[in-house]
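Blinded run. Sample ID left blank on purpose so nobody reads anything into the name before looking at the predicted structure. Input follows.
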Amino acid sequence: MKRLWTNDDLIAQWTLQPSELALVEHKEGANRLGFALLLKYFQIDGRFPQQKHDVPIPAIAFVANQLDVPIDLYPAYDWDGRTIKQHRADIRAFLGFRESTVQDYDAMIAHLIVNDVPNDH
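Blinded prediction complete.
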């Protein structure tokens, strides 16, 4: 995730769409901001941030402004509890993703062996 964002970049990448705003409308405070940031980060980077400081400060400010919440709520978002696990599950469901399984891994390896790995036989 890049650290420097222009205003145009923030608008293009971090603007919450109406359906995304509907997801956060019943959340409050730090959970509202944290959820929205996880959602946009996942959409941009294809994964969730591993740590609180992985989310760029300009993005935090931009999203906080959209949600009309103070940016200083961000440090209060719990990165270790059940809430963030539920938020991640809700975001994956909203975006049509699921956590990968051992069977997914095995299927990917089988596909690579058949299709992508050169066979010298």
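Unblinding after everyone has recorded impressions. The two ends are 42 Å apart (CA to CA).
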